[in-house]
Specification:
By secondary structure, the protein is an all-alpha fold. The chain has helices spanning 2-5, 12-40, 45-62, 66-86, 89-117. It starts with a helix and ends with a helix.
Length: 121
């Protein structure tokens, strides 16, 4: 359980696993935002843009993109602040897990970039 909260990212395999977990959470957030848009009966372009950012971020984080990991994490922080102001139940439950996963995705993709730049022994 502790590895889901703060995984050890000391080799390519562990960094890849953490990045995949973060990518999955970015995809979950894309889906939850899309469900919220349909449930509200409103499809504002900004909400659909958030869905697109999380969706593209899921794919790119899965592939190890540090920039997309930071983007998805920053968007998650903004949504978390909005949740604290409004507190809908669905977001109150999901956001702590997403926040941790995307934060670890930033750590993992940074480590993957560092490992890629290191010469092989």
């Amino acid at each position: 359980m502790a590895e889901l909260i703060w995984p050890i990212v000391d080799d390519v395999e562990s960094a890849t696993e953490a990045a995949h977990y973060a990518g999955a959470w970015s995809g979950i957030l894309a889906g939850l935002n899309l469900l919220a848009a349909f449930a509200a009966g409103l499809y504002p372009p900004s909400l659909l843009a958030v869905c697109a950012i999380f969706g593209i971020g899921a794919w790119r984080i899965w592939e190890g993109s540090e920039g997309w990991a930071v983007t998805a994490f920053a968007l998650c922080v903004v949504e978390t602040i909005a949740v604290l102001l409004r507190m809908p139940l669905m977001w109150g439950i999901a956001m702590p897990f997403a926040f941790l996963a995307l934060m670890n995705g930033v750590r993992a993709t940074t480590a993957l970039g560092r490992f890629a730049r290191q010469p092989f022994p």
